[in-house]
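Students often ask why we bother predicting the structure of a whole assembly rather than each chain alone. The short answer is interfaces. A chain on its own may look different once its partners are present, and contacts between molecules only exist in the joint model. In this exercise we take three input lines together and write out one structure for the complete complex. Read the inputs first and try to guess which parts will touch.
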Amino acid sequence: MSNENDQTTETPEELKFHGIVAEFDNVDDVVDACENVRDAGYTKWDAHTPFPVHGIDEAMGIKSTLLPWLVLCGGLTGLGIAVLMQWWMNAVDYPYIISGKPLFSLPACVPIMFELTVLLAALTTFIGVLALNMLPQWSHPLFRNERFKRATDDRFFIAIDAADPLFSADKTKALLAGTSSLGVEDVMTEANPAPFPKGLIYGGIGAVFLTFVPLAIIAKARFSTSDKPPLHVVWDMDWQKKYKAQKVSPFFADGRTSRPQVAGTLARGDYIAEEDMAFHTGVNLDGSEVTEFPIPVSAAMMERGRERLGIYCAPCHGIDGVGNGMVALRAERLKANPTTPDSSTWTAPLSFVDPAGAVMTQTIGKLFKTITNGERTMPAYGSQIPPEDRWAIILYVRALQKSKNANFAELTPEDQAALRGK
Amino acid sequence: MQDVLTPDQIREECQLGDDSRAWAGRVRALGLVMLAIGVGLGFSAEDEFAKFFRSYLTSYMFLLSLCLGGLFFTMVHHLVSATWFVAVRRISEVMAAGFPLMAVLFLPILVPMLMGSHSLYPWTDHDEVLKNHVLHGKAPYLNVSFFAVRAVIYFALWIGLARFFLKNSTNQDTTGDPTLTAMMRKRAAPGIIVFALTTTFAAFDWLMSLEPEWFSTIFGIYYFAGTMIATFATMTLTLLLLQEKGRMKNVVSGAHYHDLGKYLFAFTFFWGYIAFSQYMLIWYADLPEETFWFDIRQSGNWVTVSKFLVLFHFIIPFGGLLSRHVKQNKAPLAFFAILMLFMHWVDMYWLVMPSLHTESIAFGFVDVACLLGLGGLFVGGFIARLRGNLLAPVRDPFFKDSLHFRQPF
Amino acid sequence: MTNTSATDSPKAGLEPPALVQGDHDFASVTESVCRVVEEKRPPTIWFAIFGVALAALLMLFGLIGYLIWTGVGVWGNQIPVAWGWPIVNFVFWVGIGHAGTLISAILFLFRQKWRTGINRFAEAMTIFAVMCAGLFPGIHIGRVWVAYWLFPIPNQMDLWPQFRSPLLWDVFAVSTYFTVSLLFWYLGLVPDIATIRDRATTKVRQVIYGVLALGWRGSARQWHRYERGYLLLAALSTPLVLSVHSVVSFDFAVSQLPGWHTTIFPPYFVAGAIFSGFAMVLTLAVPARAIYGIKHLITINHLEAMNKVILATGMMVGYAYSVEFFIAWYGGNPYEKFAFINRALGPYAWGYWTMALCNVVSPQIFWWRKARRSIPIMMVVAVLVNIGMWFERFVIVITSLSRDFLPSSWGYFKPTSIDVLMLVGSFGLFFTLFLLFLKFLPMVAIAEVKNVMPQAHLKKHHH
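Now the answer. The structure tokens for the assembled complex follow.
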């Protein structure tokens, strides 16, 4: 309100006519009035009530909103996102095998499918209600009207906009005055509303651009390489106060962090008593190779040896020990094929049974050492085959050797007769 | 809906016509014939009626659902002091009054068991039980005598409750005494507790023990969920049919159908939720002692039936009943009601049959015969009972409010 | 006027009671609720409770700092009981939140008008309870700074979350629940905040409430969309609230642990959640209505209705206990049988019997109408139910873990003082937020209450 004594040079606001508003104090009157306004054909008008009045939608001719359709779309979008997300992330991009469940497990995906459907539908509902209602709209000419404050309390209003094509100052006022309203007033609005502050607009645009900065930084980091060490914000337990095995130690004279064993150290289970030395190593105490079997020789032991040879030795040496195992055969095939990479490191496995071969004259102790420690390109089988089984294999190897180098005179009379064909 | 109808005119509308007597008779006759055919087929199958008993049980549990659901709806109505559904309450009361018939129809299941038949429930076979450590442990519960005693208790309680609510409601038609409403409201809560326990254990006894090594704590609720879907579908169809025949035209309105549609939707969702919980939890833990039950239902042709259930018992009706248009229009609503009734029968079939046909579904005419047979007897009885009473509780204190029911949203 | 025609019947005492008691009109309803927000100084008791709550909250913050700095070992969690009080507290708080959504959404769909006196209250309670709930999983992960790994955001390891885990379903379910509840609550608040805005006398209040009210002016066209949106959110919240506690129950039920792996868990947990939630609503509503003088809006009939719901859901929980017990025997699994006997007779028997007495026995008193309408009795029962429901989660989580398949792995769990103080602190968080809500926001849904008063209904038939 301008004061005559006011020295400030504030020009009185220029006001412009916006429309008229009528006040009512009960629901029946306002609904009746709405029907009149609706029947008169006005379009740019509204009723204002402290709570939704049932029946006012029909009285005003308000059509059903399309909000439910938007929400349906939102929900279906959520459902689609959930399915795609779970499928792509857990079954395609980085497949996880979890307790034998299928990579894309529909039963396990259902809960999140449901939640995202509801979430997107609810967000659409909320944003939809606000957007369709064109809220927030903090400024409205009706707020200038003192009476209108009771619109959110206990009074009901009808407001007709002057921009309505049917609006005419006297006719429209008369229409409203003819209803049981408590009063009809003009609604004024600013003639020259202040423009939206440019600063806010620029600030808003700037803020939007700023949000892209972190994304850009991440993108750059993702798609480029660097020779600098990464930023380590949370150390977790990444740098621990201890020396690692291959690092230099300032403490020991030889500079090694990883220390050798003290002489005479034995691993648990490695202790071998003197009387067991021959059995476990194939070498006697005096250093000579074992020539007598340290295990009882029997048909059962022979059978065990046959079985074990078939498992461990036959792949290279063949089941009859001539050196024609599957591995050897394949290696020869590869060697013969000019297109395969260089196989010059391949050494053919030795034959056990060749009378002129090296193995034929080896003692069983030597054979034992070969099996235990390996020889040239043959790997050590000591960790896979227990000592007893190794002796059993050697027993069977001896049997194979005998079988390919048998002497007629050593056969029994029955076998000699059988061979002669009698 | 006109306010100008006189109370006597309303009474007129709420009575079945004279031709209903003939209809009841015809339907019952069809039922008996079909049942006889079913028995004949069962005899000729030479499997000691194993298939027949299961066909019978499937349709039996289906129809029992309607009685149970009617009883539950009636009691909940009183519990929450509902007013707008008064107009349709008589239908559910009459549905619940079918228990005596169902008790009689239970005899073909119970009597053979008492006479030593093992064809239906494996645990009735003493030799098998002795060999099987797990079944042996359950023998104190799963034995024929206790089974029979429990069945008697269930029916006694159900018949008692149904009778209480129907009798008081029909008495009110003549006396208009409001204290009857107060009394029914008071008895509703204890009634519901009795209902919950008896229904759960009946489902355990009659359905779950078909495969006695299996168990699921949610099974009773699963059966209940299906029951309610079938009940709302039946109530909807009954009212639609009655209105087709010119009855209840000014009593039941689009608003009531909309609500029935909403309940159908809600319980479809609820069924899906319960069925999913049961399936997913058993699938996830992957314990063979539980998964074998679903395994059977995913083997051979059964997997098609299972998918059919998911699609037509949940997904399609969920989507369809979401729409306001469907719930407010008679033709689409009737379609979904019929669909849900059919699917509930399929659900029962899916629960029962795999206990016999473990590899693949083997549908036979005996299944149809039992459905039409038992169904005919049930529907005939239902018509007869509707005939014997007014179709709505016209002197319920809130009947008038119910007539004016409008959907607020 | 009793019209005794052929189809009319007197209603003699069967009519539902008035929702707003006494001779009130719209203005007095506005006044009753807004007065609380507008008064310069809240009642002294508000300060007293707020002081205690704030102290507890600050203690909670301190303890959380200590926890994150030192590690999860400050709790009593050990092997085999790797899930201890934090998870029990999480489930407890999430459960309490459910009553708010039930009152807001489900009772709305069932057209139960009496919900309007308490729904604002209850929705606020939901939001704060879910915040307290979300706190515990957030801090119990140990390395809180990598919590973002729980979400499907690209990370430095090129890994995605494991969606087949119920713990991840929880992340989605609880986040969704919080978001949707917040949106629903805020949407409901907008018209009421507008009411306060229009009554505001100071510039500060005008601006703050004005901004929050989004310029709401009660336009009927806006009300139309608002109503549809409200209905849709109610319709969405209903299955959501069922799903959230079901997903929480999946945390346990998908396992193979005896006592945990049972198919009835989802509906059983939901019933239990509603049970404990209503008890908490009562615990808050009874004092608030007395202190703030709104007994005419939250009437004794509202309280009685809530007590009936407590009785009903308590019976559902009892049903679940019985069926679980029966099937534990029926199923024949010796581990399952042992689990139940162990609960009742083992080292945690004291917890089990507390739970049984509080949950099953104490609500039975509500069969009597006098008890349902007695303030002291309902307060006692409400507190007992809350205690009982905390113990139910305790019994489920801890007894099953402490004694499962292999006796050599059994172990007895003892909480540390940090466990106990954090639970107390979470109540501090809850009450601080709730008291702030009472002070600054309208605690009753003014517009919704007006909507169900007789003056809001059209007397004449209109076209």
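Check your guess against this: Residues 326 and 335 of chain B are 9 Å apart (CA to CA).
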